[in-house]
Amino acid sequence: MGAPLDGWIETARGTVHAWQCDHMGHVNVRAYGEFFEEACWQLYAHVGITPTVLRAGEILMAAVQQNIAYKAELLAGDTIVVRTRVLEARIRGLLDAMYSNRDAQGYAQPWQRESIASYITVMHNARPFMPPFPGSEREVQALAAWLASLQTRRDVIEGAQVTGVTAPPRGTSL
């Protein structure tokens, strides 16, 4: 599908057919639902949530809210493109404050240390490639405090993300 654009990915593309239109010639709500259902499955696959994973019960999920803003009418023959991004993800309610980092007016809010600490202990459930965090409760709290502090820092922390990784020449050791 399409390349990411500020976190958005193209998750569905199709053509509107006459049989998907209402009595006024506009796409009906049912047809929009079908396009969005297809987009959901493409998004799930993009983040590794495949039908096999769902059937195995490795991940349980529920869509509890959908918000649709109709910007313009689509007519028979029009191309529909659905772009999607993840705004929120929760694991048993623990991530509410961490991922809901916008207030009611849409302004960004910092992640709370407590939410970050809660996520650290269950991160391996959401990211199967991550092992469980091996540290003590004190280490969880210290890591969460440090991660929370990064939100207000202006300095650059040197590391591979900034400087890159240099490999030694073949035949030499570190």
Summarize the structure in words.
By secondary structure, this protein is mainly alpha-helical. It folds into 2 domains: 9-84, Thiol Ester Dehydrase, Chain A (Roll); 96-155, no CATH class. The protein has helices at residues 29-46, 51-55, 96-99, 113-126, 137-149, 160-163, and strands spanning 9-15, 79-84. The chain has a two-stranded antiparallel sheet with strand order 1-2. The longest helix is centred in the first third of the chain and has 18 residues, at 29-46. The protein is elongated, with a radius of gyration of 22 Å. The model is unreliable at 1-5 and 92-102 (pLDDT under 50).
CATH homology-level superfamily of the largest domain: Hotdog Thioesterase
Instruction: Compute the separation of the termini in Å.
Output: 41 Å
CATH class of the largest domain: Alpha Beta
CATH architecture title of the largest domain:
Roll
List the main descriptive attributes of the protein structure presented here.
174 residues, Thiol Ester Dehydrase, Chain A, 2 domains
Question: Concise description?
Answer:
The chain has 174 residues and is mainly α.
Structural topology:
Blueprint: E1 9-15, H1 29-46, H2 51-55, E2 79-84, H3 96-99, H4 113-126, H5 137-149, H6 160-163
Antiparallel strand pairs: 1-2
Helix pairs in contact: 4-5
